[in-house]
Amino acid sequence: MPYVDGFVLAVPKDKIEAYKALARTACAIWMEHGALDYVECIGDDVPYGELTSFPRAVMAKEEEVVVFSWIVYRDRETRDAVNKKVMADPRLKHGDMPFDRKRMIYGGFTTLLRASDVIS
């Protein structure tokens, strides 16, 4: 089953274009180094919950939008090898990020279920 890295972060609305440019570059780099898929989504219907929510999780401010992203790999071993290459890639070493990295949530996940595996 595939392995997935997931991310949730808050991007200032006035930095969306800079984030899109970064995402395009990052996508190309991850795919070049062996990722199977790379997806970036901008929040459209993500209400601020009373107890938990995507905006609460990243302490999103009024002038920020939540981004939900994931990268798919063949397996954990491949993910570790790909990420090692990506982190060494000089194309991602351009200093200021268009979001607060301290409020980014990320983690690696083993796949539990895929529709393609259960629907004939």
TrEMBL record:
List, alphabetically, the InterPro entries matched: Dimeric_a/b-barrel, DUF1428
Q: Which Gene3D superfamilies match?
A: 3.30.70.100
Descriptive protein name: Uncharacterized protein YbaA (DUF1428 family)
